[in-house]
Structures
1.
Amino acid sequence: MNQWVEESTKYRREEEPLMLDLVFTKKPEPPPSIHYLSPMGRSDHVTLELEILEEDGIRFRDDYKKEMKLCRN
């Protein structure tokens, strides 16, 4: 197991900021690119956007979009 999230992900008024415990991935090599975005709505959790590349350089996210297009046809 690897800890990829390195910044606090939960902020609540007077409480100490907390970090997300786990992000489950499948073969995360090389390490994912993580973007910490603004919370959605009234949430006290930041939004995490992860981009994970397979060893051969194919993006999981791009492959998913291609599969979705094929399913619609």
2.
Amino acid sequence: MQRCWNDGFFGKGTLSRSEPTFRARVSGQERSSEAVTSERRRKRREFKELRAQHQRFETEERKRELNEEEKAQWEELKVKMAEANTESKVVGDKSSPVVLEDELEELEKLEFLQLDVVEAFFLVYALEVAEVRVDPESEPLGDLELMKRMAFLGAPEATDDEFISILRALLQKYVVYHHYRSLGWCVRDGIKFGCEYLLYKRGPPFHHAEFGILVTAADERRSWEETMAVARVVGGVKKTLVFAYVEQPSIEQLGEIWETKEHPRVKLIRLLQSFKVCEMVYRRWSPSRTRE
């Protein structure tokens, strides 16, 4: 589980925000990112309270002359603000609960790594470092069979005619994921910001995502309201929105490739090669920033 995260930032811990840190948080052996974030927010909240008190003293001073007691309180408040402002190192929580070794082994089994379907398929098909089995005793699923099962996950009762449409939607999403992974980007889910993917230059622990990817079929028409809404959300968190337009085959063409009697690996390569990705970067035009 930890190796999937460390060697490419794949998946997320089911009991963590992203990196599987449940064991570290429970055992108290090291500071997790969640604990650091919580501590930082607490200190920021305390500093805001001190600043509000400081502003109240300033307002009172403009209205009237402060007495000696109030001046002393104000000076003490300034010292506290200076200490809080210069403190940049988060001190560990010394009151972390001690967890016994036997309990720790049981707690380790509670969290597991959750992969998106495109992440799982990329690990199996592109990197060939993972296997997917229906049960521990069965043989690993082949690439084509795995793709078929993944397509049926969203619609288990779909008919054969509906299956090709579902398969095309899945392949459309996967080819964009594969495209950016092959270019060296760390690709993460972007549902939090209203788009399909987020692109990190190195990974979530090092930098914020630079781009938000909105996957769209080349013949699909999005409304201006929808486009501007996503652009506002992505731009509000200082990311650049990229439209990934996917040129895809028709349902009939995709069905013909699927029905061929070729080797499963060859068939899958033909399916993927029938898709093409084109990119367009969206930026708001601001007169104050783009003067000639």
3.
Amino acid sequence: FDAVREEKTRIAGAPPTEARRFAYIDRGFYAQQLERLLKFFPREQVKVVKFEEFKDKQRETLVSIFSFLGLEPLRSVRSKDRNVVPYERVMNWEERIFLYNLFADDIAKLEQMLGWDCSDWKL
């Protein structure tokens, strides 16, 4: 959580090509990112996949993505978790509330834009 509190300082001190990697909060505003993307591409050319759906239903989600792209689905998929690193500690309730309050409007907007239910992202 220290990284979140220090985000602006880290971004300000980083070269422009590396600043994005310190934008922990900014990268979480998915509706804003989608709005920017949709300025350049029509909605029917954009497929958005919820990570939880991909993780829980990997095969079905990949079939859906391949279909969207007009490609034949893969015959088989090897499931392998990567970059699995245990957290140093569990986020405390105050941190969860802080982050939820920060992202609540964006989550609601994303639900509206995509017709999603993001109740699993809420408190």
4.
Amino acid sequence: MSATTTVRAFATASGLDPSGVETADYIITNQVNAPVFSPQGGFFSAAQAVTITTSTSGASIRYTLDGSTPTASSTLYTGPVMISSSATLKAIGIKAGAANSSVTSSNFGVGNAYVSSDAWTNIVIPTQNSRFTVRWNAVPDGPNVDAVTGLALGSVDDYKDLACIARFNINGTIDARNGGAYQALATMTYASGTIYRFQMEIDFSTKKYSVTVTPDGGSPVVIAQNFSFRTEQATVSSIDHIGIVALEGGTHMVSDIVFGTSTPPSAPQGLRVTSN
């Protein structure tokens, strides 16, 4: 059978009355083939026009760019999707009389991207010496990595060189440095392959900083509010480098670094502290 069918049958035998009729419905559900992206994802130096196709004739494609799961009400694909900043593209195929396809998902990073390792990577940035905001995207490649992104004055070759630090903790959560220890105002777990948008607000007049993290397709979470610069950098008066490193469990990619200003978010209740 290649289509939904109702089967009715009875049995006969010589010298016996026929059996009763038995009925059974056989439902054959065809599924739309999963969409295919071209290019398939990755990090790119310039904006990308992404084509999405499915080999199922007559199927339409719906997609999202915010990390949410696409549905029949998501944006209809009518031509190449322009991706000019880091995003997670997800798509499904839909056709009447057939089951929706599985979801195809890929991360796209646009602009300069840096991959951490067990050796420090230094990124030179414009000198900052007042109140400012820096934002970046970061993608861990495992569920339990020990990877940091931090700001410093001068080249970084040790954790102690960093004044403000955000970390993918090896325990699977995100935290930040507060003076002499890593802490977090909220428990935020991270997932391998997900884009996280970090916003760090630094005030040199108070030597304090705050960190807000937004997972792709999710809501902002305040990790740090008015945390102190790392103890060893308590008197630093400017920064001109970003340092990244990953020592255990995998690596992380950092991209889309931008500077600006914004109003600090309100802090949630509670404090979680982990050992250094």
